[in-house]
């Protein structure tokens, strides 16, 4: 079926671009001598995850227990939940996942770690845990200087096996220059390696030293002592990655196909794609509209749930019924809004991929 | 089951508050002598829609063809799509809906209207259309002074029946004072009524004069010549409605139940609810964090997809594993992120309501 026959709004994946993105990151990781464990949160599909493994990924990263359940049920046998999992029922659900897949989970507190270990100890099993390191984002995780102290408390807990450390240089998304972004990437690598060294100096094992985000991956994975990289967004890229300099417009694999439903004034056209199709995420590092209207100079200046309002630039013109493609600000949240991603090659829809892990926030 | 047993994050509806909200708006519409046609986009469930009809609503408002399909398939027999529907395949889908339900659709261009009418004419049927009026939001719709000209073009088109006019005073969400909000509400009523008068003066029928948004509904529905009101958010309310003065905290029926997964510093606690559970929508009329952490003075200062970062206020304390409830900035987009809403009364979960029209953006 031709792309021209898809109902709008809908998310479209350009297969040629996707495949180039997949191959490029796989080659980078191979050249750096680190394991690639991509974060599946960006696509949430089984089809792209399988392509990542086919390109040499050692396994998948996910964010939540519910996502791990989806991938384990589909036969993916090596999963890392890059999140300090805490909450009622979660340890027992992790035990069920660990019976089907090699599983590791993040921890950043002894209380959280103890709760995770309990059902594993009762079952005579061990859950692999990785200590989350705060390399400067100041979200979750312990500071590198506190890593050894937490490792000493976590390592002896029943039902757990300390496997390493991980971090995420998410604060690189705030960098407005390439130099600043590179500096964040080097810090990310230095700080997580520092934490690993401190844990080993305390006489504890730390085989895995994991980091990564799409804007920092290329530099950070080359750091001394790094064993694994976990970029997610690189499969699709988006307007934020273009603004950050992680990629060019031609590297954006995901667009939202939309229809102009109204041209109520000469300087205004309205799309059938609003925040329910494109998400309300602000472009980083600097706010600048709600996505790139491909092939035009016009800006997508405001979104409501079902409307995208385009400020029409001089030289552009739009008519009711016209179809356009929009590169969203943040691809990872766009896939979470839709049930199916349409995989397209040179204008032909090859497959519809169910967003199998959509909405698995638990 | 107790609320305390629900896995997090998840959306919870307080039934006592919901029922009070439903009854209050129904009484207001009854007192004003206007038809209540609530916008179902806020809840997207069949269960709340049925309660709205039981309270006297004449039918439902929806935003997209896909939502109309869900409600028509479930037996709802009076639907208005408050949107200028345009796009490949949509007229044919509307025809299928119109075979099951009394259907009206918005139009704001003759091109759009002509396309809608074509399959209806071929089937020997008529689609009811309402002309969208721009009362100041400057999104879709024609200005009141242009309404009669469009009506003259639309009314004779094959397959269409001109039923009236509608508007939405969405720009009231930018008002920082009650006085400004009331002024927007009066303008909304005046302008849509002006458009209706102009259409009638042109010798065309205009039986329906419809308006509404939750912040403007109470004032606008009392305007001269108004026949129908279409609020949506009032069923749940949210932090934006509290900020606008549409309601109090005690009128917020939807909260997101979340767990503290990390307390990495004395002034920082992290929830397992991020933008995938709470949505990234900015609070209006003035940006102020990402939701209200119920029963605390602490602010939810940043969200990433799976993390909500709380800046802990003096006097508040949080511990790993603690459960909290968050009133989101924008309830309508929260229901779109989840598959089930949990209906709770005094701490007991009575039912799980599937979000039947979730993701129906087409």
Structure overview:
The structure is a homodimer of 362-residue chains. Chain A has 362 residues and is an alpha/beta fold. The first copy, chain A, has 2 domains: 3-10 and 247-354, D-serine dehydratase-like domain (Lyase, Ornithine Decarboxylase, Chain A, domain 1); 15-235, TIM Barrel (Alpha-Beta Barrel). Chain A is built from 11 helices and 17 strands. Chain A has helices spanning 15-32, 46-54, 65-73, 90-98, 110-122, 147-154, 178-201, 217-220, 239-244, 275-278, 331-335; strands at 10-14, 35-36, 60-62, 78-84, 102-107, 127-132, 160-166, 208-211, 228-229, 254-265, 268-271, 291-293, 299-303, 308-311, 323-328, 340-345, 348-354. In chain A, the strands form 2 sheets. In chain A, strands 1, 10, 11, 12, 13, 14, 15, 16 and 17 form a 9-stranded mixed β-sheet that branches. Chain A has an 8-stranded parallel β-sheet with strand order 2-9-8-7-6-5-4-3. In chain A, strand 5, helix 5 and strand 6 (127-132) form a beta-alpha-beta unit. Chains A and B meet through helix 5, strand 10 and helix 10 of A and helix 5, strand 10 and helix 10 of B.
Short note summarizing the structure:
The first copy, chain A, has 362 residues and is an alpha/beta fold. Chain A has helices at 15-32, 46-54, 65-73, 90-98, 110-122, 147-154, 178-201, 217-220, 239-244, 275-278, 331-335, and strands spanning 10-14, 35-36, 60-62, 78-84, 102-107, 127-132, 160-166, 208-211, 228-229, 254-265, 268-271, 291-293, 299-303, 308-311, 323-328, 340-345, 348-354.
Shape of chain A: elongated
End-to-end Cα distance of chain A, whole Å, is: 36 Å
CATH architecture of the largest domain in chain A: Alpha-Beta Barrel
CATH class of the largest domain in chain A: Alpha Beta
Number of strands of chain A: 17
Q: Please state the average pLDDT score of chain A.
A: 97
What's the CATH topology name of the largest domain in chain A? TIM Barrel
- The CATH superfamily of the largest domain in chain A is known as Alanine racemase
Strand content of chain A: 15-25%
The greatest inter-chain interface is formed by:
A-B, 66 and 66 residues
Count of alpha/pi helices of chain A: 11
The gyration radius over C-alpha positions of chain A equals 21 Å
The total tally of domains of chain A equals 2
Indicate the structural class of chain A.
Answer: alpha/beta
Q: How many strands, which pairing sense, and closed or not: the largest β-sheet of chain A?
A: 9 strands, mixed
Which blocks of ≥5 consecutive residues of chain A have pLDDT under 50?
Answer: none
N-to-C SSE string of chain A, H for helix and E for strand = EHEHEHEHEHEHEHEHEHEEHEEEEHEE
Oligomer classification? homodimer
Query: Portion of residues in helices of chain A?
Result: 25-40%
